[in-house]
Amino acid sequence: MATQETAVTRRLQNVKHVILVLAGKGGVGKSSVSTQLALNLYNSSSTARVGILDVDLTGPSIPRMFGVDNHGVHQSSSGWVPVYVDGPSARLACMSVGFLLKNKGDSVVWRGPKKNGMIRQFLSDVRWGDLDYLVIDTPPGTSDEHLSLMEHLAGIHSRLSAVIVTTPQAVALMDAMKCLSFTRAVNLPVLGLIENMSGYVCPCCGEISNVFSTGGGVEMARKEELRFLGTLPVDTELVSVLDGGQTDEENSAFPLLERYSKTPSAKLFQEILKAVLDSLVAK
Amino acid sequence: MTVGLDPKSIPSNAPEHCPGTESEQAGKSDACAGCDNKDVCASGATKLPDPALPFIKERMSTVKRKILILSGKGGVGKSTFTAQLGWAFAADEDTQTGIMDLDICGPSIPTILGIASEQVHSSSSGWSPVYVQDNMAVMSVGFMLPTSKDAIMWRGPKKNGLISQFLKDVDWGTLDYLLVDTPPGTSDEHLSIVQYLKDSGIDGAVLITTPQEVALQDVRREIDFCRKVGIRILGLVENMSGFVCPSCKGESQIFKPSTGGAKRLAEETGIELLGAVPLDPRIGMSADYGISFLDEYPDSPATTAYLDIIDRIKDILGD
Questions:
Q1: Superfamily of the domain at B53-317
Q2: Chain B contacts in chain A segment 185-214 (CB below 8 A)
Q3: ipTM
Q4: What is the pLDDT of residues A43-98, one digit of tens each?
Q5: Which domains are assigned to chain A?
Q6: Which GO terms describe its molecular function (chain A) (predicted)?
Q7: Nearest Cβ partner of A58 from B104, B185, B259?
Q8: How far lies B228's CA from each of B203, B204, B222, B225, B233, in Å?
Q9: For B187-196, b where at least 16 C-beta lie within 10 A, e where not — what string?
Q10: Which residue in A166, A187, A196, B281 has its CB near the most CB atoms, within 10 A?
């Protein structure tokens, strides 16, 4: 692909890896996986710089998950300033349409062309700076947002890759397959597949219930020759951490990371992170 | 900084500040200078109603009730709820029920209803929907794909075209209820269905949510959308509300209502909470196997909850 210089490629010239989190189906945990991926990448070294971009324009969840849903975006002479969620060290930059709304209950009722324009602005007008990783959380489906991303990121195609998230249910796996077909059609390398919501541990008796069935992700990865990155159970502690909004823990610059580190998911995600980084190297 | 909320139609080749082809400024604003569509827009032709509208109105004239199932957030159980509602209506053999699946990129309705391998046939009176039983007709893009692996990578205008066809070209016949299952969000599909059904009238929308704040945030946006476009909200349904362990029967909250759940949202917005359906793993399993949860597990607390909600919806509609 010819590398044509555009506003997007200029803006992202110092971004080493762009990872798209895709799923096909809604509500399988794209945003929570994106959040965890960003947190783990951030935590992987004391200098790692990470960006997270939420392109779910009509249903942005990222601001709430990072506990910054009352923040706004500021303009500067060099572009929009993203919201830094980790306090003074400013290594984790976050951008979402949620920051642009006056009230969090406002709906964004946009057809494709306006969504396309917003995505282009997110990529070209936000002051991302130097990033080791830019994680992009996507909406469900394979439509305007996904096509626009691929179009605008065409200039840095060699730095793009994707992670697919599914739950073990047949309906989710079917959409994950569609999503995989999409990545193949647009020639987007897939780092691997994560099976989310795989089992739920009853807090009373410890019995594991397969609330949304189990094992489908492993099977799909095997059949489609994808790397299986790991399974994550339904983790109520994680739900609470990501849903809880802001807290005032004064002795910590980045309380979310501290609270997240204590969840069972955080331990499991370390293996997933290893696999993701492995795949990135092998890509 | 403000984000303009302009639900007007804008073509894909429009300049950045296109006022929308149906706006008063179409063809006249500064942004229109140099746009290929300037003359067409300025002539007023684009402000004329969509030529499909009279055909849709004609087709929909034999459909008594049109109900939208909306949610904002994905994966909260819109399609599952739509299917249960359909089955419950169709349990009365004199009630003709139709289900239209607007989720074009991720159609789940065929799988949930156990008709994933069916195809749509066309006849002189239009496309024949797929019948799950004599009084239950279904239309989904899932019936039109060569294999379930195929992805539909369509931008808005193509999706809108198909939705228009689902309304005007499908031989729905006489229906008591048409249930419209929608994809997550508030975008092309939602605007189109509202626009296309404006003349025929939408009887109301059921909003589905789960208890956690991230889902409720999206439902607030959907409520805002309904109010903007003038759709009556029949009520809220809270899905995945509590989980009963099959082993110890202890109840726990998988998705904690950190901000009071749907109950609080209902109080804040003055919208009726139609009911809360507990999470039963057999619901998801039934959906995967395409069997009716209500018929298979009549003893489940979730079945009772579903049936109460469905009765309430009938009450509200006056049926």
A1: P-loop containing nucleotide triphosphate hydrolases (3.40.50.300)
A2: 185, 200, 202-205, 207, 209-213
A3: 0.91
A4: 999 999 999 999 999 999 999 999 998 999 999 999 999 999 998 999 999 999 99
A5: 7-282 (3.40.50.300)
A6: 4 iron, 4 sulfur cluster binding; ATP binding; ATP-dependent FeS chaperone activity; metal ion binding
A7: B185
A8: 16, 14, 10, 5, 12
A9: bbbbbbbbbb
A10: A166
